[in-house]
Every structure is written in C-alpha cells, then in structure tokens.
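Final report, Chapter 2: Outcomes

The project's central promise was a pipeline that accepts a single protein chain and returns its three-dimensional structure in a standardized token representation, suitable for archiving and comparison. That pipeline is now operational. To close this chapter, we reproduce one record exactly as it appears in the project archive, with the input sequence first and the structure output second.
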Amino acid sequence: MTVTDIHGHVLSGASPQAAEHYQQALDAYHRYGGKPMKHLARALADSPGFVMAHLLKTYMTGVGTDPPTQAIGRAALADARGLPADSREQAHRAAAEALLGGRTRAAGRILEDIAVEHPRDLLALQAGQLVDFLTGDARMLRDRIARALPAWSEGMPNHHALLAMHAFGLEETGDYARAEAAGRRAIELEPRNGWAQHAVAHVCEMQDRRSDGVGWMRGNPCAWSDDSFFAIHNAWHLALFHLGLDEIDEVLALYDGPIYGERSTMPFDMDDAAALLWRLRLREIDVGDRWSILADAYAAQPRGQSAFDDVHAIIAFVGAGRDAEAGAALADMSTATLLTNDNAAVTRDIGLPVAQAMVAHGRGRHGEAVDLLREVRNGAARFGGSHAQRDLLDLTLIDAARRDGQTALERALLAEREAAKPVA
C-alpha cells in the first residue's frame, strides 16, 4: 500500500499511523512552535525506514551552527541515507546533504526545483525560504513562494504558513501593504504562527511605525511567545519598537526577560541579544554587566561556520572591552576564508570587513569604521538575515561618521534613512 501525505506526495517507508504523526510534526513546524520532535519520534518508532521523517528532523536541526543541535541533524541525515525514496524524496535528501555540507546555495536550488514540480510541498518551500534568509536573497524570499500561490487556495491545510512566508518575502522586497495584509490574514487563520507575527513586525519596523508595532506585538503575546521557536526573536522586535520610542526601561526588561533572561546558547538567539546591546551602546546607554555575560557565552561557541554569527560574537567582545578575544575572533574569520564552503566567500567579502569595522569602532578608529562599512554595505545582503537585522550596519556607519566629524556624510545618511522608511 502506498502511503501519501495530505497533498498526495508519496511517503516512502511510512505506515498510515506514522504518516499521521509526521503530519502533526509538520503542522507544528509550519507555525514554528509546538512539539514537532515528539511527533517525529513517534513516527520513526513506528516506521524506522520513513525517509521524510528523518529528513524533516534534518531540516529542523541541521540549519544553524549550534554543535549539539547540528549533530542531531547529521545523525538524522545518516539514518536517511540508503532508504527507499521516490524522486521527490531523493531531491530532499540531496538538499539536506548540501545544507549540512556547507553548500547552502546549492541546497536552495534543489529545494527550488522540488517546489517547481511540487508546489504544495510546503516543507520544500519552508526549507527553501530559510536558505533564502540565510543568504539574504530577498527576491527568492518572495518569488519562491509566489510561484506556488496558484496551487493553493483558502481552506487548504496550513494555508496560513504559505501566506506567512509570502508576507515575509513581500516585506523584504518593500511591498509593505501586501506584506502586512498577507501576514495579518495568516494570523487570522493561525494566531500561533510565529513567522507571520514576525513578518508584520518587520513591516512596522521598516515603516518606522513604532507604536503600531508595540500594539501588534502586545495584542496577543501568548500566541507568539508560548511554546514558540520564534519567541526570542519576536521579543527582539518588540524591544526595537520600544527602543524607537526611547522607552529604555522596557527594552532592558525585555532583554533581561524573554530575550536573554534564560541565557540561550543558540547562536540565533545570542545574535539578537548582541544586536540589541549594540544598539544601546550606540546610544551610550550603560547596560552594566550584560556585555560580559554575553561575551562569556560567545567565548564557548565555535567560530568559522557563519559570518553572521561570527560578527555578532565580535560585537559582544568589543562591547565587553575584550580586545584580545575580538582579535582572536578576527583571526578565526580570516582562517575561515580559506575553506571551500559558501561561508568562506561571504566571510571574505562581507563578514570580515564588517567585523573589522566593529572592532575599529570599539577602539575609537571611527574613520576606519566608516571606510570599511561604506565598502560593503551595498552588498551586505549576502551576509544573510533581514533588512532589520542588517540595519545595525547603517546605524553603526551613521554613528561612526558623526564621531569622526564627517558631518556632511552623516547628514546624507540620515536623509537616506528617512526616505527609506516611508509610512504607508
């Protein structure tokens, strides 16, 4: 008997019961919350040869740089090798191999081809958009999802997830009105969709709608914070809104609470913490020993896998006044440029100059920071992340120009910034 998922895709090696558990895992993953690993464990206990269950586990744990989590992904991929699989599942396996082999862009291309042939393969779309996020490919963030829209309609299971992904792609390409509409509709369908919540938050951030952003995030906070993979990042967005309103006590309360109160060792979470503290540093706000605590956590992390993570580690070392560790991290980044994975090129072209600029800023060499950031800022999308995350580079450039007495440049950059944040 051939077992298929709810969209008719073959699930090789699965029993009907295992397929149900797998769908429950997907349902949770598509909203970035719940307990997908629990459901996957049940699926694999029932059907150890269920190739897509192993590959979903790989996607969930192999994308990132946290060693223990990535080890789970590598083990899951090893379990998937050699199992019976149809052409779609074989392509997923190839994409997972590329991802864990550091060939991120190749993985994105394979996932693109899967979704072209199977536009209702929501896992291919979601994993692909995560690749686009990691590589800063704004057009594909939008168009990867847009291509699949004709195959979907209201009422289909997990339609909210497609809308949420489209919302984020629209936002990153500046189509703010459509992005907000799609994100809000996704939340109407599934209030717990953390990606949709974050897409609308991005719209408010890019349009400088701080009060609207606070209202959006505080309207139903339990929906995006309880049992959600995106709770910390969404709290970071809320903190940015409060920062824009000069509500520093609220910002620090969020930092000490959901953002870094539990001192996560996941690089994505730590990067949010570092980025928020750096914004406070640019405002000359004393944050006490928060820099030191965060720098301790970064000191225990490996480097050389992600230029984005490495830059944020250096930000933490600079903020904590640890010149020697910042210098050692720069040396590690230089070594990383000699490797053959995708990160090597990004580190060489973007990450290392940005890190050098942050060190220069910390050491009071503001003219040097200006020169370094001006060289790379227009290509910084390759660095990964979102416009809101990469905004840290512009904020640092403006601050460095001011501190170096480059008044005309500072004025020009501020005018550029004002024009880029139109309110709808």
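Archive annotation: DSSP finds 23 helices and no strands in the chain.
This record, like all others produced under the grant, will remain available to the consortium after the project formally closes.
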